[in-house]
Specification:
Strand content: 15-25%
Radius of gyration: 23 Å
Helix content: 25-40%
Shape: globular
Largest sheet: 7 strands, mixed
Bound molecules: 1,4-dihydronicotinamide adenine dinucleotide, magnesium ion
Oligomer: single chain
């Protein structure tokens, strides 16, 4: 660990971490534990409890027991607790961004600009919405002698299964709307990055969330995630992660008819037209591919550039990629950290290898061995890579890479650009770079994806709905619409005769 860690972070990391169930820390049944690694060195940071099926039973029971009290709490009080949790996270921002850098590897500057403020805002936004969940009265079609009203009720016990790319922020995406709507939650953070979720649970208890409203099970997918997906007393699953995991959760939850929301990543395109502000397009597409080491569900890894500016664009983007400085997330000079784990690094290197074998040409990078970084021996680094001439049906053009690897290809017409953009099973996001307003609207309309960014890329705001089409999943996060995923409508008929 680096010497410049805050004392509070050092103390927290060194704690003997337990599960968080029914408002208190407790060990896993059987006392199982697992290691948490620093991806910048591979060193073991600490150990955490390793949940299994019996712990899932306990956490679900705690969430079920807390449900009546939580949903009957005045909405203003639920909202106040969420708001205070957001404030508390903001007040402890310095701690959280070090924790994220340690556990996930991301640069603290990025966590300071994105992860921590969006998390705090997420809790405050949904805290504000807790008091605005309203039903309607309905005049019947048939003019029946009745008074009909609807109630918007929480779904019940929600299991939230989240990934490692934005460990804290993904907690907020799930917890804030679920709790605002009056549900109780069992949260399973990714096994690679459990620490910020555990710190969040401590803070929730400190600000006054009643025991059992938020439970955290640290553990692995098959041992702790799968039993949640199949548990008869879980009413809803909200999941972010790999497409194949989403499919297995859907299958496991079918037997008990759970409601499911899925955010499953993508293979998002950026379309750069010849009339675009090229400097802005280079910077924007650079961020689209390489932000967060490329470990983004919305990574815009397929870049299509109109032929007249293609060569100049490739040259400028390559120059931008050359400026990347690999290092520990805790070093302020670092612009790209390590990947989250050795297995993620190896998966990405395997895809780079497959790209080379398929005939793609690296204009930057292309190394198929882990990158060596001064001061970070043993870290899970991958050299940022930019390919041209990747065959359209190669794995690097089809599969989510989730690493610092981009592909650039030329196009001629707007119609061709749209066809290339849509030539994917996914539909999460897309970027369009043009100064032509008519084209911006036409292309935005034609793209099959849940988010289109024009002349920007990767911007998020908790007020704006986010979520995919097609194999990228379903169910929106952020925005008022996000509450729908955590509410069910009850019609109450009152006879008047
Ligand atoms: P994953 O989808 O396996 O893991 C995400 C979460 O699901 C973790 O909490 C994990 O413990 C849990 N999980 C795994 N198997 C489960 C099961 N059978 N039942 C219930 N929960 C389960 O993703 P993984 O293996 O960490 O990463 C592999 C690839 O997935 C990445 O290379 C990337 O392409 C993609 N991915 C996409 C993300 C996104 O934001 N869309 C986030 C993370 C990964
Ligand atoms: Mg997996």
């Amino acid at each position: 660990m680096k010497a410049d860690l805050l004392a509070s972070v050092r103390t927290f990391v060194a704690t003997e971490h337990q599960l968080f169930v029914g408002g208190e820390p407790r060990p896993a049944h059987g006392g199982a534990r697992f290691d948490v690694q620093d991806p910048a060195s591979g060193a073991v940071l600490t150990t955490v409890a390793r949940a299994g099926a019996a712990d899932v039973d306990d956490a679900v029971a705690a969430a079920r027991a807390a449900l009546p009290g939580w949903r009957r709490l005045p909405a203003g009080e639920r909202g106040r607790l969420l708001w205070e949790l957001g404030n508390r996270i903001e007040a402890l921002a310095a701690e959280f961004l070090q924790l994220e850098a340690l556990d996930n590897g991301k640069p603290t500057g990025e966590a300071a600009a994105v992860d921590v403020p969006l998390t705090a805002n997420g809790f405050r936004y949904f805290g504000g919405l807790a008091t605005k969940i309203e039903g309607v009265t309905i005049p019947t079609y048939g003019g029946l002698p009745v008074h009909v009203s609807t109630r918007r009720e929480p779904v019940g016990v929600v299991a939230a299964i989240i990934p490692w790319n934005f460990p804290l922020l993904n907690c907020a995406y799930k917890l804030a709307p679920a709790l605002a709507a009056g549900n109780t939650v069992v949260l399973k953070p990714a096994e690679q990055t459990p620490l910020s979720a555990l710190r969040l649970a401590q803070l929730a208890a400190e600000v006054g969330f009643p025991p059992g409203v938020l439970n955290v099970l640290t553990g692995f997918g098959p041992e702790a995630g799968a039993p949640l997906a199949a548990h008869p007393d879980v009413d809803k699953i909200t999941f972010t992660g790999e497409n194949s995991t989403g499919r297995s959760i859907l299958a496991a939850s079918g037997g008990t008819m759970k409601r499911v929301s899925l955010e499953l990543g993508g293979k998002s395109p950026s379309l750069v037209f010849a009339d675009a502000d090229l400097d802005a397009a280079v910077e924007g597409t650079f961020g689209a591919v390489y932000f967060n080491q490329g470990q983004c569900c919305v990574a815009g890894a397929r870049i299509f550039v109109q032929r007249p500016v293609y060569d100049a664009f490739v040259e400028a983007l390559a120059a931008r990629v050359h400026q990347v400085r690999l290092g520990s997330g805790l070093d302020p000079a670092t612009t790209m950290g390590p990947l989250v784990s050795a297995s993620q690094r190896d998966r990405v290197l395997g895809l780079v290898r497959s790209g080379l074998a398929a005939g793609a040409k690296p204009v930057v990078g292309g190394a198929t061995d882990p990158a060596e970084v001064d001061g970070c021996p043993g870290g899970y680094f991958v050299e940022p890579t930019l390919f041209v001439d990747a065959p359209p049906d190669s794995d690097i053009m089809r599969r989510e890479i989730f690493g610092p690897v981009g592909m650039v290809a030329p196009f001629d017409t707007e119609q061709e650009a749209v066809a290339l953009a849509n030539d994917t099973e996914f539909g999460l996001a897309a970027g369009v770079w043009t100064r032509d307003v008519g084209r911006a609207h036409r292309v935005s309309d034609e793209i099959r994806a849940g988010v289109v960014w024009v002349n920007i890329y990767g911007w998020f705001d908790v007020a704006v709905p986010f979520g995919g089409f097609r194999a990228s999943g379903y169910g929106k996060e952020h925005g008022i619409e996000a509450l729908d995923a955590y509410l069910q409508t009850k019609a109450v008929w009152m006879g008047l005769s």
